[in-house]
Amino acid sequence: MNLSSLSPFKKADRILVVDDSPDNVFLIQAILEEEGYKIVTAADGRTALAKIEESPPDLVLLDVMMPGMDGFEVTKRLRDNTSLPFIPILLITAYDHLSVAKGLDTGADDFIRKPVEVDELLARVRSLLRLKHSIDERDQIARQREDFVSRLTHDLRTPLIAADRMLSLMQQGALGELSPTMNETLDIMARSNKNLLAMANTLLEVYRYEAGRKNLNFSPVDLQALLQEIVKELTPLAAQKNLSLKLNEDENAKGDPGARNVVECDRLELHRVFTNLVGNAIKFTDTGSVNVSLNNTKSAGNPGIPQVIVEVEDTGPGISSEEQTILFERFRQGKHKHSGSGLGLHLSRRIVETHHGTIEVKSEVGKGSLFIVRIPVKHSGNS
């Protein structure tokens, strides 16, 4: 394909050629420009990285041996930069297969040996650009799908909220006295509508997190007070099933306000996480108890960083090892008769990870479940 054959509506692919040899750059540039590609050049690795940051190309042709920063290091830095889109990297090398293996392991997509053969160069460039276009198209479709679901879910909330308010007014007798049968029917309708509204809200939050559109408001929060609030809110729900719901407070914090667990977090989001975990424990437990524990300890991964550990333990039916492997995935429903949409735990994991924490489950069938959340903590005395 030469320049004259390019459609006037098709944007020419932009290729960055990185080589410290002016002769090599001139040769490759002449070959590729003849084919209609737009060529940008750089004589060293640092200049190349700066140009990529400024305007990412569609493909990088990268010489392996360059002074200052070689092609391996440039490749590694590009692959480590998660803010960049996918950019194929074609290494140009005069060395043996060991350097090729190192380049591919570092993150390059293909290689070509010096001296460059014109037909081979063009074939490899076309192949990598097809890969680039395919991945870009896939990512665009994924973004469009996520945007569609987000917009649809957002629009669904309006009629659901209106229906919830209307049903509430009818239950209060605003439209006249209702018979016992009608009251029972309205109760069922109201519960179903609330469940659907909760599902729509959760789905909307999931897509906000996945699209990077969720804005969090971090501030110091007393996690012990937050858990006390949640347990108080959910105690009536546990009482309906004759379950014991108890918060085992951090012994280190009793009688010492300065030792209370303070976490830099978005309070509403952590409220959502622990409400979901405790609510699930109550929902899936038919007899026995639900216990919430709070402790402060050192991080196992980094002993210098204190963290808070919240455990939610129930005496429910337990979770099989097979289900545990997919429990936090999106739309993965459990086999329990009360299993929901499969979004709550996925969203909880998203929130916890955004707070630089972890969430895990330990369970055996017939022996209950234990959910463990670890979040970096900041004591009020150090805030």
Topology:
Elements: E1 14-18, H1 22-34, E2 38-42, H2 45-54, E3 59-63, H3 71-80, E4 89-93, H4 97-106, E5 110-113, H5 118-171, H6 180-210, E6 219-222, H7 223-240, E7 244-248, E8 262-265, H8 267-284, E9 289-298, E10 306-314, H9 321-324, H10 344-354, E11 358-363, E12 369-376
Parallel strand pairs: 1-2, 1-3, 3-4, 4-5, 7-9
Antiparallel strand pairs: 6-8, 9-10, 10-12, 11-12
Tell me about this structure.
With 383 residues, this protein is α/β, with parallel strands linked by helices. The protein has 3 domains: 3-116, Rossmann fold, CATH 3.40.50.2300; 145-210; 219-382, 2-Layer Sandwich (Heat Shock Protein 90). The protein is built from 10 helices and 12 strands. The protein has helices at 22-34, 45-54, 71-80, 97-106, 118-171, 180-210, 223-240, 267-284, 321-324, 344-354, and strands spanning 14-18, 38-42, 59-63, 89-93, 110-113, 219-222, 244-248, 262-265, 289-298, 306-314, 358-363, 369-376. It has a 5-stranded parallel β-sheet with strand order 2-1-3-4-5, sandwiched between helices. A hairpin with a 7-residue loop joins strand 9 and strand 10 (306-314). The protein is elongated.
Descriptive key words:
10 helices, alpha/beta, Rossmann fold, 18% strand, single chain, five-stranded mixed beta sheet, 383 residues, five-stranded parallel beta sheet
The secondary structure category is alpha/beta
State the helical fraction.
Answer: 40-55%
Count of separate structural domains: 3
> Largest beta sheet: what is the strand line-up?
2-1-3-4-5
Largest sheet: 5 strands, parallel
Output mean pLDDT: 83
Question: CATH superfamily of the largest domain, please?
Answer: Histidine kinase-like ATPase, C-terminal domain
Per CATH, the architecture of the largest domain is: 2-Layer Sandwich
Could you spell the SSE succession in H and E letters?
A: EHEHEHEHEHHEHEEHEEHHEE
Strand content: 15-25%
Cα gyration radius (Å): 29 Å
The CATH topology label of the largest domain is: Heat Shock Protein 90
Q: List unreliable stretches of 5+ residues.
A: 1-9, 379-383
Our count of helices gives 10
